[in-house]
Every structure is written in C-alpha cells, then in structure tokens.
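Hey,

The postdoc asked me to send both predictions to you directly instead of through the lab channel. I've kept everything plain text so nothing gets mangled by the mail client. Protein one:
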Amino acid sequence: MGPHDIRDAIVDFVRTWVEKTGIAVLRLVRWLKLAPSKFYDWRRRYGKINLHNGWIPRDRWLEDWEREAILRFHAEKPNRGIPPDHLHDAGWRPGGGQPQHGLPGTQGCRPAQALESGQHGKGQGF
C-alpha cells in the first residue's frame, strides 16, 4: 500500500462519514488533526499517483547493454550503424574517458587542435 493509497483511504473515510452522519467536512477533517488545505489538496489529487521532481527514466534512453551492443557492432563493422560519436554527444563515455572525435585526420586531437591545424573544412561548403 503506497502513500497515495493511504491518502485516498483518508479521503474515502471522510466522504463516508460525512454522508452517514451529516457532520461538516471541515469539522471531521479538524477532528482527524489534518490541515484543511492538506485534505482539500488530497481530495483534488484523489486517484492519482504521487509525482515527484526526480529524474524519471525515459523510453528513449539507452540501457547499458544497448550501448555496449551498439559499440560492439560499430567495432565489428565500422562503416555501418550509428557511429559511437553520437553516443558521446549524448554525454556517455566508455570508461569515463574523453570523447573520440570523428573528423578525418583528427584522431587523438582536441577539437581546438583540429581548428588550428586547418583540418576543419571551414569554407568548403556543405
């Protein structure tokens, strides 16, 4: 039984006894030592699960085994599939290392080194 189930049970309890006895909702809520604003908030959220501000895993996020499968596929067939640089753009690094850059001739270089060396392709169109 989750917190939202307890909340809904209290709302049900108050509704039931208000109907059976004719006691005002506010009086019954105060007898239960609940703040009226809290009860009315619970009543508004009746039947809903508790939501929070924490991170919620999304369907589009890759599981670790999926990332590994993509990297393994790319290692076996480097000219097919999603290049691992796209995974790096999403913030994932194998072993926490630095990202690998996919520009031709820039393996092992920082992006600034590629610009300084003239290997950036700037001014050559699309």
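Protein two:
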Amino acid sequence: MPIPNTHIHLIANHHTIGEKQEVIAAITKGALRAKGFVSQKWLNDAVKKPSSVQLTTDHLQAIKRADLVIAEATDGDLDVGLLTYLAAQYRKQVLILVESNSQASRQFISGISSKYIDVREYSSIEQIMKIVRSFVASEAIPDRDLRFNMFINHRIYRFLRQRAFETGKNRSAIIRELLEKKLDDSQK
C-alpha cells in the first residue's frame, strides 16, 4: 500500500465524539483508501475526556497545516461551525458530512455558500467511505513532484542568479523558499 500523502484534519462535535466512533473510523478508512491520513491526536483526547477539548490555537494550527478538512456536522455545535468557517477562510477544501435524517444537520448547513465547502449527506457507513474516498482522491496532492514552466523577465532572472551565487542554492530552490515564505505569511 502506498504511503498516505494528503494530510486531513477532522472536525467533529467533541461532546458526541464517543458516540460517533464508527463514523470516525469510516472517515479514516475512506481517507486511507484514497492515500490520505486523518490526524488523530485531538480525537483520542476527546474520546477519553470530552469536556477537556476546547477550541484552541492547536486546532487552528492543525487546520493551517492540513491539505484538506473534513467536518462531521450531524451533531454540529458552534465550535464545528466556527472551525469549518475558518478552514474555508484559510482556503482549505472542506467536506461537511451530515447524516441524511438529521434535523440538526439541515439547520447547521443552511445558507453555506463557498467554493471551498462541499456538503454531502450520508445514510450508511459504506456511503461515508465512498464519499470521503472520492473527495480525497479528487483533491489529493499527486505523489510525484509538481512541475510547471514559468517565464520570467530579465530583472527577476538577475535577482535569481545573484541570490543563487550568494547562497549556493539553485534558482528553483530560491523560488520555492520565497513562495513558501509568502504562503506562511499569508496564513498568519
């Protein structure tokens, strides 16, 4: 089996997480089948002691680090809604899963409109795995390096050549570092 390479952060109601173990397992299995992995740390803490889990900077940092976000919102609460909103604001693709016969879920998802959010209803564990696998596969980062051609002007070329000479790095590495720094700055 290939090593999972798409990092997924899971959002769920920490008060009812113990009752949703089968759903959480289905989300995790669906993600793994599409070469993704779900962060487990906060889930383990929530199952042990639900009242101790709070909306913290750890959650926000985990969302920033994640490639994708999946929210189980059947028993949604304010934290689930807020974290889902923030994930979309961080430009993360978000899959919101809601049980199809849940009245609370319809209230939670009403009025959501964002190109980063996909709301899907499920009625079985098998359907959860299928929805998650499809979502992760469609949004996953390929295994191989992503490459593209880029045209630059003389000014940029001279800058890159000078920086390469000063640092001993190749021009591609310099561009990657500049882009990563810009991405980090924009997510703060």
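Summary for protein two, as requested: Strands lie at 6-12, 36-38, 68-72, 93-99, 117-122.

Thanks,
C.
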